[in-house]
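[scheduler] slot 2 assigned
[scheduler] job type: sequence-to-structure, two independent chains
[scheduler] chain ordering preserved from manifest
[runner] begin chain α
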Amino acid sequence: MSLKLMYITNRPEIAQIAESAGVDRIFVDMEYIGKSARQGGMDTVQSRHTIDDVKRIADAVDTAEVLARVNPIHDKTDTDISSEEEIDKTIAAGAQCIMLPYFKTAQEVRRFVGIVGKRAKTIALVETPEAVNAIDEILELDMDEIFIGLNDLSIGYGLKFMFQLLSNGVVEDLCFKFRKKGIPFGFGGIASLGAGMLPAERIIAEHYRLGSSSVILSRSFCNVNTISHMGVISSAFVNGVREIREYEKAVQIHSDFFNGNIEAVKSGVTNILETMT
């Protein structure tokens, strides 16, 4: 079974290109509460999409699912609507999957699942060390999927490079627990084949070795903020997704490849860290 590919955008024309190329989920990223504080100064995507963007994307696509990342669980303030109102409006706008970011306790996830109430798929985004510590309790809740956010989780652990979580066993231990519970899961993002500090091919193979079912296409897969020609963007998506699908077939056939892949990942991470010191 192929990985579900997700791409973050609030532009309907880009969503349609991605959908036509075979991207499975269009990802509208509305999270902003607390995000700048913890990612300040880093080269990370902080989208600030809106509920109106959810509606525009939902109206633009036919086959791709619309996934919306809402804000962490919060009550109403002078500047922010409550989680209940935010999630209600997001579902009404057409989101089929709702992702909860940056939680630390099972209680937050329980409240999230209760608010959604089976009106959409629920995806818990594990990206804090506290969530990792509470994962057994969290996995007792009735979620549809779970995802590991490598960037924020690596920040939480004080790591220099997010893919250290692949080489130090944290992701592997979590994936073992997810598989044992029978809950679909994914982690991190990938660039196009042949690109990325740690080659996308290595990361894709780890998804298959660990039993993952979804991954985000990273900004570097096709950075639409730096490309103005729609033909070039379309070509990048069509060729990039096709290459990923072809590589997935090869990985599935040659399962013995998994044995050496994790060692190659560990070696690659070590080499990258040496250049960062």
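[runner] end chain α
[runner] begin chain β
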Amino acid sequence: MNSYSFVDGEFEVRSEIKHSVFIATVKGDLDGDGAEEFVRAVRKKYPDATHNCYAYISDEFGNATRFSDDGEPSGTAGQPILDVLKKQGLVKTAIVVTRYFGGIKLGAGGLVSAYSGAAADAVRAAVVSKKQACKLLDVSASYSHYALIDKLTRSSLCKVDSVEYDDNVRAKIFVPACDVERFTDSICELTAGRATVSVDDGVYYEKL
């Protein structure tokens, strides 16, 4: 996987349908433990709610999913919320839709529409970001050569993780995995081969 999209932060949207109040809260950049903690936090925030239904996708591949109807008829809340996440292509993101029952039953179709609509409204209100599959490069160069490398980094879709200043400059730079060869060739050209570059074997997902 070269990249994935997620909700960047936490957002909340309220709506009312036939006197029932729906509060949709969405949060991203979560793993499984983080998603479960988020669900607990929303339940704690609204302890007197009739239902706190939720869904989340907790890995970058879209495989680790979980949802709950929390007492609503089976298939009318959690699955529709999860469907919104899938339709929007969001992963590592959780949505909790809180309901305060207003006295009028919505029926199965009405519940599906209400929960999916609330979840979609929350996503529309949110900031969606993307993380890119990256390699971590360890670059060592003289001060004058690093100035050229820094300029290259700033003009590319890369992110400096850390910089150490000693006799030389040593920087760790996240570079899109698909662009590592071009980036290292550019460093070699800019520094006439005097900079040293090593590439970490791991794959890291970073917001660039």
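[runner] end chain β
[qc] chain β: The domain at 131-206 is CATH 3.30.70.240 (Alpha-Beta Plaits).
[scheduler] slot 2 released
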